[in-house]
Each structure stands twice: as C-alpha cells, then as structure tokens.
Design brief:
The complex is a heterodimer of chains A (about 170) and B (about 210).
Chain A: H1 9-39, E1 50-55, H2 56-60, E2 68-78, E3 81-93, E4 99-103, E5 114-116, E6 121-123, E7 130-131, E8 137-139, E9 149-154, E10 157-164
Antiparallel strand pairs in A: 1-10, 2-3, 3-4, 5-6, 6-7, 7-8, 9-10
Chain B: H1 2-13, H2 15-23, H3 37-55, H4 63-75, H5 80-107, H6 116-139, H7 143-156, H8 163-171, H9 178-189, H10 191-203
The chains are: A alpha+beta (about 170), B mainly alpha (about 210).
C-alpha cells in the first residue's frame, strides 16, 4: 500500500507546488485575452476618410468675413459598424480671398460654437470661450485658436478629411 | 521576505488556512480523481462568468448586429478569438463534465440520506447549465442560432396545456424578434443570479470550499 498523503509531507508539498504552477498558467491564459479585450481600442487606428464639401464656384460666392456653417458627413468604420459622423465646417473667406476651413469645436473642451453676428464672435455655450472671425481666441478659457480641417481641391470640388491640420493633443473629432 | 508577505496576509484573511482547505480536501482513496469533477465544474463556471463579462464589452443582443459584433470579437479584437474560444470550449467542457459529474453522483450513491437535497439542487443546477448552453448558442447571431431559437421555442410550444403561453413568454412575443434576443441575452447573463443557486447547491456538498470564500 502506498503511504497516505498525510504521512509524506514532501509529496504533499510537491503536489501543492504543481497545483500552484498549473493555477498560475491557467490564470495567465485567462488574463491575457481579457487584457487584449479591454485594451483593444489602444491598438486601433482611427478611420480617416475624405468627404465632399462643395464646389469651389459656390465658395467663391461667399461674402468675406461672414462665416458659413456647412454640415459634412464622414462615413467612418467604428467597431463592428460603419457610422455617419455629422460634423460642421465653418467656412470663412478672409479679405484677401483665402478660405479658412474651421471646425466648430471649441478648443477648450470641445463644445460646439455658434456665430454671434452682433458681437462678430464665435461663442462657446459651455464655459464662455470666444473666438474672432479668423479663429483667434478673444476671451475665455480656450488655450489655442480654432482647429482647421484637412482639405483638398480636385477638379473644382472641395474635399474635407476627418482630421485637423494641427491637433497636438489628438483630440477626438 | 516571502514568509513576511505570507504572514501579513495570514494575520488578516487567513490565506494559508484557505489554501490548505482547498488542497487538503479529504476524498476516498479509491477513484479519487472522479470526486474532483464538482470542483472542476465550479471552476469552469467561474471561467464562463469572467469570459462572458468581458465578451459583453462588444456584444450586442440584436439580430443583425449580434452576428456583426461576434464577428468583430473574433476577427478584430486583440486575442478576441482566444477569449471567445475559451467561452465556447468552456461551455462544451462544462456540459461534458456535468454529465460525468451527475453520473458519478448517481453511481457512487451520493444522493442517499442525508444528501437528498444536494441531489435536488444538483438537478436544478443541471437544468440551469443546459439553459445557459442553449441561450449562449442562440446569441452567436448566425443562421444556426436563429433557427435554434425558432425550433426550441416551438419545442416549448408542445408542452401540454401551457405550451402556447410558454412560447410567447420565451420569445417575448409571438414572433422571433428583438425581444427574443433581449430575453436570450438576459437569460445567458443571469449567471449572477444563478451563481447564488450554485453556492446554495455546493454549500453542503463535497466541493463546497470553492465558492465559500
């Protein structure tokens, strides 16, 4: 007859260590996929797409220094679906005829701006951020001027990308 | 150093005692391994709950999207196919060892006095695991799971007298639709509720230590 486990402590210790090792392996095998599952968004690239904004000939008709809010719709792959992101491009023609493609996102915490024509300023409803018609901060907490959309002109049509020209903190769009 | 850490925990939660309780369970020397299937099932159950929770990071219980989200977990989530695989094979293994365990209890006569209620609790848990398996299968969102819902709710309709009502209750309506999926998803996530039943079932059983932490 083999000795019972109580009488041979070394065998008991051996079993304990083996069980501990097996448990550790199982624990790691479970934890690693779970971490992958949770941390997955960190390894995903943002889907960057071009979308049509309008004809250059239409932009030429804009009055100088009168902002025009134009909706654009980005068809972006997100997770298991393709989503439509509705966004605003604020078109501002300056006095020399150049176009600015501003975002209507406040650079403070991302609330949508509106144009107050009586004050000639973009106002933010959240914390009182203020920008002038060329996107410079004129008051409130915003740390930097308005974001500008990446854009290109092809065959007289303007396209916009869901990406800002200068976006140091990689703010969501 | 190690001893110090061990003592620190022992003073507060009695870790060594707990580990000894896990490892020092007394079982008959004859055919000792077959007495561990109960603990194995408890362990598999915990694995299913944990992996299930984390699959819910992506899963949507709505028919076309259920398939899309399952596909996304499998093909686009980092190690998602492993996680999904653990959940799937955990379910298969659980059903298999459930049968083995019930057979062991039956043939070793572990249902006799004073353990009648353990047998009853075991039967309740048996049906719960079967329901979990079926609902989990229905949630994948492919053709198989769609027709499984239809076929099995039709099976339920053949229960005498109450069958028709049963089908409506299980489907959440007269058609297999949105509410059906919601119901199946809820039933599959009722792990949390069921786990109390599990603890009840295991409390006085041989493998009771596992969940009595």
């Amino acid at each position: 007859m083999a000795k019972s486990s109580e009488e041979s402590p070394s065998r008991r210790t051996f079993m304990l260590i083996v069980i501990g090792l097996i448990s550790t392996v199982i624990g790691v095998a479970l934890t690693v996929p779970i971490l992958g599952d949770v941390l997955n968004p960190l390894f995903k690239k943002r889907d960057i797409v071009w979308t049509k904004l309008g004809k250059v000939s239409d932009l030429e008709k804009l009055k100088p220094l009168a902002p025009k809010f134009t909706p654009v719709y980005f068809r972006v792959k997100e997770g298991w679906s393709v989503n439509t992101l509705p966004r605003q491009v604020v078109l501002v023609k300056d006095v020399s005829g150049n176009f600015n493609f501003f975002s209507n996102q406040c650079t403070h915490l991302g609330c949508p701006l509106h144009w107050d024509s009586s004050r000639q300023e973009f106002l933010c409803p959240c914390h009182g951020g203020m920008f002038n018609v060329l996107g410079k901060v004129t008051g409130g907490p915003p740390p930097r001027p308005l974001y500008r959309w990446v854009h290109k002109i092809e065959n007289g049509t303007v396209f916009v990308q869901n990406k800002y020209v200068y976006n140091p903190n990689e703010r969501g769009i | 150093m190690f001893k110090k850490i061990q003592n620190w925990f022992d003073e507060r939660i009695g870790l060594t005692k707990l580990i000894n309780e896990f490892n020092g369970e007394r079982i008959p020397s004859k055919g000792s391994w077959i007495y561990t299937f109960g603990s194995l099932l408890a362990f598999l159950f915990i694995v299913q709950v944990v992996t299930g929770i984390f699959l819910l990071f992506y899963y949507v219980p709505y028919f076309p999207l259920a398939r899309n989200s399952t596909y996304f977990i499998k093909h686009h989530v980092l190690l998602g196919n492993v996680l999904l695989g653990i959940h799937l094979w955990g379910a298969f293994t659980m059903i298999f060892f459930l049968l083995v365990h019930m057979a062991r209890v039956y043939f070793s006569g572990a249902y006799k006095k004073p353990r009648e209620l353990q047998w009853v609790a075991g039967m309740v848990l048996f049906s719960i695991v079967i329901i979990l398996g079926l609902t989990g299968y229905m949630l994948i969102g492919n053709e198989n799971s769609w027709w499984t819902i239809n076929v099995l709710t039709n099976v339920a309709a053949h229960v005498p007298l109450v069958g028709g009502f049963l089908r409506i209750i299980v489907r959440g309506g007269t058609e297999t639709a949105t509410l059906t999926m919601q119901r199946m998803a809820f039933a599959d996530c009722r792990h949390y509720v069921y786990s109390y039943t599990y603890i009840f079932g295991k409390e006085n059983g041989r493998a009771g230590y596992c969940l009595r932490i």
